[in-house]
């Protein structure tokens, strides 16, 4: 029911006109980088329907044959040719995914469901079920501008259900889909290569964690800090990307630099000025055993984000991200089974940020078995040091550790059991812990 509700909300919701509100949790969830929802990949080849499987016509309107709308919706996603007829009562053509792809439009529809069981201090605390759904499209805008690589991306998404952290009491977040319930416009941007393969511009509503301060190998973990550091105050990421202008410069295959300026009002709705979130990052990439190191700094101009009542500071902090491949079964094939590791480190002003230091690390083994080349298994750790000005008497450090196994059943369906042990959840239970068991189900249509 959660998935049906979300898909319906996304298909018929009207996007808000102002900046999206941020969740009440103190840590911004990580940007979703779902393997099954790869927006850059072309749609899978459609399999033509055999004659006997084609939906039978049921009526004729104005000389044009129509079929039940639910069957037309199935064909819209999978059939090799467009079918025409009424769509939920509207007399409009309904193109298939192949028709859309022939016009330079890549359509993605996907959903994620997390089911968690939470135990705190050796006592059962209940369970949480929530769902995330997304409908997105990428338009090959180079057909209009006659420039290779130009594209427009638009996304509608939503989430429904209680977050596991509401029961576990943790600050960092045990799932990267957790947020307040919403259904809204997500990212909506235009991207162009000003200098081919060298200078890229990206303008519009952008999820900053897809471009800055993220670990390429950490995105497969469920824990929110693996995707975006909890020290970054007002980070314009899921579920509230904001208007921005971004520039990315890569003079060669090794060195890169990037910068972005974002509307900072989503995190500071009471700020009567025009607060900005600014971020810059530089790094190095290398081949052989592929890896990268990235160093960045961010700054939020608002002075309303104060934990210390006597404080009057803007917020600034540096971060470090390292991704490294240790082994691959076929060194020249990026998709071959292998083992990789990552490290994250960041700091922030204790007067402004609830988390003043963050350390994250993990190891991921893809293709752990010869017969399961698309599966992945991993173990991760994330630790947050809390500010001395944290509310509710929170003190010390919150540490979360645990393994996961990702089972890729088909190209479109995946299961991911995950276990997290959270030590001192929320900084209010020294010497105690919470255990969060989660089963994630992902699918793509």
Give an overview of the whole structure:
40% of the residues are buried. The chain has 5 helices and 20 strands. Strand 8 and strand 9 form a beta hairpin. It has 445 residues and is mostly beta strands. The protein has one domain: Porin (Beta Barrel), CATH 2.40.160. Mean pLDDT is 82; it is low at 10-56 and 79-88. Strands 5-6-7-8-9-10-11-12-13-14-15-16-17-18-19-20 form a 16-stranded antiparallel beta barrel. A two-stranded antiparallel sheet has the order 1-2. It has a two-stranded antiparallel sheet with strand order 3-4. The chain is globular.
How do the strands and helices of this protein lay out in sequence?
Elements lengths: L1 H11 L46 E3 L2 E3 L2 H10 L4 E5 L2 E5 L2 H6 L2 E16 L2 E18 L1 H4 L5 E11 L3 H4 L13 E14 L3 E8 L35 E8 L5 E9 L12 E11 L4 E10 L14 E14 L9 E10 L7 E12 L9 E11 L10 E12 L4 E11 L9 E12 L1
Antiparallel strand pairs: 1-2, 3-4, 5-6, 5-20, 6-7, 7-8, 8-9, 9-10, 10-11, 11-12, 12-13, 13-14, 14-15, 15-16, 16-17, 17-18, 18-19, 19-20
Q: What tags apply to this protein structure?
A:
445 residues; 20 strands; mainly beta; Porin; single chain
Examine the secondary-structure arrangement and name the CATH architecture. Beta Barrel
Strand-pairing-aware structural class: mainly beta
Contiguous runs where pLDDT drops below 50 for at least 5 residues: 10-56, 79-88
Rg, Cα atoms, Å: 23 Å
Strand order of the largest sheet: 5-6-7-8-9-10-11-12-13-14-15-16-17-18-19-20
Q: Please, what is the average pLDDT?
A: 82
Number of separate domains: 1
Question: What series of H and E elements makes up the topology?
Answer: HEEHEEHEEHEHEEEEEEEEEEEEE
What is the assigned CATH homologous superfamily? Carbohydrate-selective porin OprB
Residue share in helix: under 10%
Please state the overall shape, judged from the principal axes of the Cα atoms. globular
First-residue to last-residue Cα separation: 17 Å
Tally of contiguous helical segments: 5
Number of strands: 20
């Amino acid at each position: 029911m959660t998935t049906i509700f979300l898909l319906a909300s996304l298909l018929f919701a009207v996007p808000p006109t102002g900046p999206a509100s941020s969740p009440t949790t103190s840590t911004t969830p990580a940007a979703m980088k779902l393997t099954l929802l790869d927006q850059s990949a072309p749609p899978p080849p459609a399999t033509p329907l055999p004659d006997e499987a084609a939906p039978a016509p049921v009526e004729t309107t104005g000389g044009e044959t129509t079929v039940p709308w639910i069957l037309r919706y199935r064909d819209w996603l999978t059939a090799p040719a467009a079918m025409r007829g009424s769509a939920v009562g509207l007399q409009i053509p309904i193109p298939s995914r192949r028709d859309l792809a022939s016009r330079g439009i890549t359509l993605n529809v996907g959903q994620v469901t997390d089911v968690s069981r939470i135990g705190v201090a050796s006592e059962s605390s209940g369970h949480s079920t929530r769902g995330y759904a997304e409908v997105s499209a990428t338009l090959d805008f180079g057909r209009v501008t006659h420039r290779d690589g130009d594209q427009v991306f638009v996304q509608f998404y939503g989430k429904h259900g209680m977050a596991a952290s509401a029961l576990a009491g943790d600050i960092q977040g045990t799932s990267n889909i957790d947020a307040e319930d919403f259904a809204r416009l997500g990212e909506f941007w235009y991207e162009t290569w000003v200098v081919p393969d060298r200078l890229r511009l990206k303008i519009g509503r952008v999820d900053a964690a897809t471009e800055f301060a993220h670990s390429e190998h950490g995105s497969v973990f469920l824990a929110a800090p693996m995707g975006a550091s909890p020290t970054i105050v007002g980070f314009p990421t899921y579920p509230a990307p904001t208007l921005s202008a971004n520039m990315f410069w890569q003079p060669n295959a090794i060195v890169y630099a990037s910068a972005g300026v974002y509307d900072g009002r989503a995190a500071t709705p009471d700020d009567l000025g025009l607060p900005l979130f600014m971020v810059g990052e530089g790094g190095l990439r290398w081949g052989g055993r592929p890896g990268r190191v990235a160093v960045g700094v961010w700054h939020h101009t608002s002075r309303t984000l104060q934990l210390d009542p006597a404080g009057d500071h803007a917020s600034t902090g540096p971060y470090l991200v390292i991704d490294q491949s240790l082994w691959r079964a076929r060194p020249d094939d990026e998709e071959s089974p292998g083992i990789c590791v990552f490290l994250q480190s960041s700091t922030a002003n204790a007067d402004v940020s609830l988390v003043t230091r963050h350390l994250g690390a993990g190891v991921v083994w893809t293709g752990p078995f010869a017969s399961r080349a698309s599966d992945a298994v991993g173990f991760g750790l994330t630790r947050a040091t809390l500010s001395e000005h944290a509310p509710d008497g929170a003190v010390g450090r919150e540490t979360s550790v645990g393994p996961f196994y990702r089972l890729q059943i088909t190209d479109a369906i995946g299961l991911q059991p995950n276990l997290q042990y959270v030590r001192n959840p929320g900084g209010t239970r020294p010497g105690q812990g919470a255990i969060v068991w989660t089963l994630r189900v992902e699918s793509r249509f």
